[in-house]
User: Fold this.
Amino acid sequence: MRLLSAFPLLENSLLSIIFFQKFIISSLFPETETLPEVETEEQDELLRPWKVLVLNDPVNLMSYVVMVFRKVFGYDETQATHHMKEVHELGRSVLWIGEREQAEGYVYQLHRWRLQASLEKDD
Amino acid sequence: MIEFELQVSPSFLEALLPYLGKVFRETSGRFAGERFAPPESGDEDLDAAWREGLIEEGRSDRLAFSRLLGNPKLARGLVEIPVDDVDDALRGMTELRIHLREHGLDSVSDEDLENGRIRIESLPQSVRIAYLGYILLAEMQERLIHEVS
Assistant:
């Protein structure tokens, strides 16, 4: 420090470089900021993939289930029918995998259509 | 407006529609919120919002279905429904079918119900009318889905 103080110009330029480097690093890698441990665990939980599952039920018509899958997930007839058959024959089907928040949105919409749906971690 | 005719005799409808109306009025307007639990989140506010959201949105489903059921043309087998009401009415019908399955038809196995291998004449009167109502709703749903797709 004493050395740098002796050379104010050098000190200023070195500090500028350090500041600039920090700025670049924090801009490029914002997640490198230190967060409390609990917060990062929660974030990890939210970011890890989740599966949207639909379970078989004895009430809903096949045509109804296909229609709902098309409306909720935007699937075409073939994809929606494939998932409907999977639900019917295997008892469940994974309709979507992705971030928790969006997965929750899908489950809500499926519940709105009175289908049995749930979330499961994608291990 | 969507219109189609059910291939059902008027005497059949005369017996069934009042029954369906009665059962529908007995069902809880909170059905969806009470039945469909949110994914486990540990967040009480989210859980409450989930359930209340389903109950609130379920109201429009029930309203659309009650409009359909209350249309006098239905007694003659004519289904008449605004396009905007179709999704809501379909959900309302599903709700009533689930209720019938779990109450009026609880003595019938899933397998028999799914395969339609049921001898109607062998069913007790109360189960018979629940079964016929269940079938009628399925027919209406099937036709509606066909009309809008």
Summary: Residues 15 and 21 of chain A are 10 Å apart (CA to CA). Chain A has two domains: 2-33, 47-121. Chain A touches chain B through 19 residues (CB under 8 Å). The domain at 47-121 of chain A is CATH 3.30.1390.10 (Ribosomal Protein L30; Chain: A,).
